[in-house]
Design brief:
- By secondary structure, the protein is an alpha/beta fold.
- The protein has one domain: Rossmann fold (3-Layer(aba) Sandwich), CATH 3.40.50.
- The chain is built from 8 helices and 7 strands, in the order E-H-E-H-E-H-E-H-E-H-H-H-E-H-E.
- Strands 3-2-1-4-5-7-6 form a 7-stranded mixed sheet.
- The radius of gyration is 18 Å and the shape is globular.
- The two termini are 29 Å apart.
Length: 217
């Protein structure tokens, strides 16, 4: 059976969705003990072996050797943008993929409208994200010379007015976020109509690449 692993999987919803849609055997790699425990519970509730949850560090050489070239699909969402230099994180994704397997990496784009909302609603988010990779060309360059054939690299997601959502924000941020929550429905309609495109309006960047055979150029 083909297999898929999500890096930074907690609580496991996304990799389980992939499993339910495509039938791949799901695995999750999670760094924190609490996150791994939550993911195991979720796997068990959905009838998936909780032993498929790997508690460990993506940068652990011993772990990488155990799972090297193991998975048909390796993906992460909202992970590599937390590194000043995400090069090694990307290389670890590639090492876990089989030859001919897919590497899928998605990051948020705190640019344009989304940058403005982050500055207003959650300014601390700016400091913990690598804004320099949140445009298509710099993002695409991250994957050059990594042993990957690029299948797709571009903006996705449409306008997400809740990208900087914070539970129970204080003061004037509370009514503003309430208004944005109501407006998000209109944003979803606009996205379906193809009206929210480009770096200033799309909420994410997506890379999909196929791992080349070692002897290919």
């Amino acid at each position: 059976m083909a297999s898929v692993v999500e890096i930074g999987a907690a609580p496991g919803d996304e990799v389980l969705k992939f499993h339910e849609c495509f039938g791949y055997q799901p695995f999750g790699l999670e760094y924190t003990a609490a996150g791994a425990a939550a993911t195991r519970r979720n796997f068990e509730l959905r009838g998936v072996n909780p032993g498929n949850v790997i508690e460990g560090d993506l940068f652990d050489d011993a772990l990488t050797r155990v799972y090297e070239s193991r998975f048909d699909v390796v993906f992460s969402r909202g992970l590599i943008e937390h590194f000043t230099d995400p090069t090694e994180a990307i290389e670890r994704h590639v090492r876990l993929a089989k030859e001919g397997g897919l590497v899928v990496i998605t990051i948020p784009t705190l640019t344009g409208v989304h940058w403005a909302l982050a500055r207003i609603l959650a300014p601390w988010q700016i400091a913990i994200h690598n804004l320099g990779i949140m445009r298509r060309r710099p993002f695409e360059r991250l994957f050059e010379n990594r042993g990957l054939e690029t299948l797709y690299c571009g903006y996705q997601g449409g306008l997400n007015l809740l990208l900087s959502y914070t539970p129970d924000p204080a003061g004037w941020r509370h009514p503003l976020q309430a208004v944005l929550t109501k407006l998000q429905l209109a944003a979803l309609v606009a996205r379906r109509a193809g009206l929210c495109r480009g770096r200033y309006l799309n909420s994410s960047l997506v890379f999909i690449g196929r791992k080349r055979a070692q002897n290919s150029k």
